[in-house]
Each structure stands twice: as C-alpha cells, then as structure tokens.
C-alpha cells in the first residue's frame, strides 16, 4: 500500500479537493485529551409493535442491528402483556400471556412472549422489558379492547381497554411475579439480571385511563416493582417513562424515594434507574421540513435537571426511553408531510448530531446517562419508503441505520474536539440550527487500536447542497503510521433511498432491483484504505462534506 504524508485530501476528485482547499472549516481533535467514556448510549432501540420482532423482516433487521454493535443492544417494545393472538397492526401487538377460566382463575401462556425474547437473546440482545399493557381479563374497561387506529385519525382513538389500571392488583402482581420467574427459569438468573424492567409507557400522556392517573400509576409501579423484586431480588427496576419531564415525573421521583409504598406500606419503592422521554418538533416552513432539535434538547435537559434535583439519585443510571426527532413513528409522510425527513440524509445527520450532544447535555447536569432509545424499527405490509420513522423498509435498511453502523465503530474514550464553525449543545437548545450557517462538528474517540472521528454537516432545514470543505487536524496519535479509512453517508453513498429514486421509485421492485437496493443500503467507504505516515503523532485530513452528510474517519494502528 502506498504511503502518504500526514496531510491527506479525501474527496470525490482532485478538482473538488483543490476547490475546497482555500477556506475549509477547521476541526481539531486531540486524542490525548480524554473527555469521558464512549458509553454506547446509541445501542438502544424500541417500537410499538412487538410482533414485528418475529416477522422475517424484523428478524433480519434485529440481526443487522446486533451485528453493527460491539456491545449487547437493548430493545424496548410496547404491548408485551396485551391480550390477543400475536397479530400485528400499527401501534398494536399482543402476546396473550394472561387470561382466566370461567371461575376467574389465572391462565398463563408464555408462548408468544418467549418467541419475542428468544429472538432477542439468540442475537445477544437484552430486553428493556416493559410491564404493559393491561390484559383484557384484568382491564377495568375490557370493551372495546383493541383499537383500530390508522394514520390521520385522532391519536386519542387508541385509548381502549388495554390502557386501564388493573381491576385486581393482586392478580396483576402475581402475573408479573410469574413472568419474571418464568424468564429466570428459561434464560437463567444471570441473563435476566442484565435486563431492565419498567412499568407502562408515558402514564402522564395518553397511555393510561384512570380518574386519578398519577395515583393509579404510583400504585401500579409499587405493586409491579414488589412483584419483580420478589421473583428476582437482583432484577433492575425503574421508571417512570413519562412523555416529558414535568410535574408527574417529579412527583413520581418523590414518591419512589420518600413516599409511602402503596403495595408494602413501607417508605419508598425500588428505583434502580430513571427513565423519561424527549422528542423534537419538526414542521413545514414554506414547503420545506424544518427540524426541532432545540425542542428535543430542551426536553432532554428538563429530564436531566429533575434527576440532578435529588441527591439520592446521584450516579443512578438514566435512560431516555424514547429520544427522537418527533413523536409518532407510525405516522407516515402521506398524513404528516413534516415527516418526509425520515427517508433520506436529514434523519441520519440529525441522529449523528443529536446523539453526540446527549453526552454534553448529560455532563452539564452531572447525570449518568447509559442509554437513549431510538424509537424506530420496521413496519410490515407498508409501501416502500412511505416515510414512517423506521430503520428499514420492506427489508432494506435506510440511510439512518448506517449512522448507527458508524457509532458501532467508535469505542473506548471520547476525546477533545474543537472547531471554528461548531454549534454547542447550549446554543442548539436555545436557537436550533437555523439561518445561513450549518453545524459542522465532530465526535471523536480512541481505544487501544484506533482513533475514530464522526463528522457531520447538519442544518434543521431539509436542503442538500455541496456543503463545505472540512479540515480535520488530529493530534495525539500514538503511532508513527496509521491505516486510514473513510466511511460516508450522503445523498449518493450508503443510501438506499437515493438508489430507489434513481430506479424511478418502483412500487414493487424486481428481485434484481431489491438486490441492488440491498447493496446500496450497506455502509460504504469513500475511496480505499490508505496508509498514512504520522511521525509526529499528527495528521491533517481534508474532506468535502455535503450538507446533511456524515463521515466517519478511522485511523487504525
């Protein structure tokens, strides 16, 4: 392999590189200056429809997710306790784990939940096991039970019999106890100890029907936590997975830490981690999608601030149970045109820029962030690239998944990054990324064998242009020579959506077209691997970075 000097231009052509040279955006990376661990907060995923797990496309996507991560991936799904035969629909799923005989005696059926959890465990994934929703036999309002919601209809229509507290708390607690005991018997104590258990979803929002929602949720949590801990004292239990970080979450934390336990009568309830949700708010502006990363960051900061408020929570693991650009994964772009960002590179650049800043937002409040769940998976029986918030369409991965593949190549410790055109988290939280200036910044890591630098060119507005020349000045390289690789997600690279559009956007791609889309969906290198001499521990690398593109530069040694 030909050796090059420690200054290298990586571009589509020499002419482009020369044109880029006069005024590059400069980013400095000091691999000797450690900022903290590269906690794999990105390796968490979730979805409403648990029965997609065992569909062929679901299994393929889970395998792809597991393959990209060097650590076990955590998976969170709704409807794990919902009654039904395991059929899927939008925002619906079921396992039928609980029913009763004619005398009201419990009947437990673990068949479908075992199939779902087996699919995870076979791929060395871990459940973020959600205790919800309410089985029909335990519902306070059993009819109507299954909703018939479709995109474009009022969101409130999903609130049917699955969304009530139990009509018998003792039976509900016993169901949870038996589920955990069964899990230990099937998967082993050590495995189940590595999971996380939670109660319900967004009880402060639309997901719980009760005259006093807060009191009922506290009671549900206390009974569930007691049942989980009786079944496995070393199990990890937490919550509240509220839609936002407001009064409900604050009151829950006070209850769990200092209040009267409504199941045991003692003070406090088990709380091994804290979880809440944070979403952005995209909208259409003059026909162009404009993201709401500032709203997303404000909601993250609100949650971190509540954790920081309680001394008892110092160091407790924090999980953002859903951390996304907006709220409804099952609302496609046909009914919600502001969601058109989901197919292309705006979703991928948003994901890179937002996950990187979550480290900074957590550090700002001194909280122990361990996970940020990307609430997107796949949707069965839907048109190609219909604009759902998903990682794959009809078995073909979308560009956003390649950003997670990039994250999977970053490990060890985060190191210092500086730049002359970089937004920090506080500025984005205040104003977003608006106006003429884009956010060109990086996240950099080092481990024993490599340095990795993820670089993005992000803007809230869904516009693509040639972007900017970028100069990476990397110092602290602990080797005299490195193997340089450049991975790219942009409008032409690692992008199945662009490939599909070039085909004419076929509604039913042929087998040959599907194979072509599969190739386009993989994370691709820009150019070939290069050997670079770095005798002084430094390298300067120049790239042309289009707007909404993401690059990953790795230096192996």
Automatic annotation (TrEMBL):
Pfam families: Glyco_hydro_39 (PF01229). Residues 1-19 form the signal peptide. Transmembrane segments: none annotated. Keywords: Glycosidase, Hydrolase, Signal. Coiled coil: none annotated. The keyword Transcription does not apply. It comes from the Bacteria. Residues 95-522 form the Glycosyl hydrolases family 39 N-terminal catalytic domain. PANTHER family: ALPHA-L-IDURONIDASE (PTHR12631:SF8). Belongs to the glycosyl hydrolase 39 family. This is Beta-xylosidase. It comes from Duganella aceris.
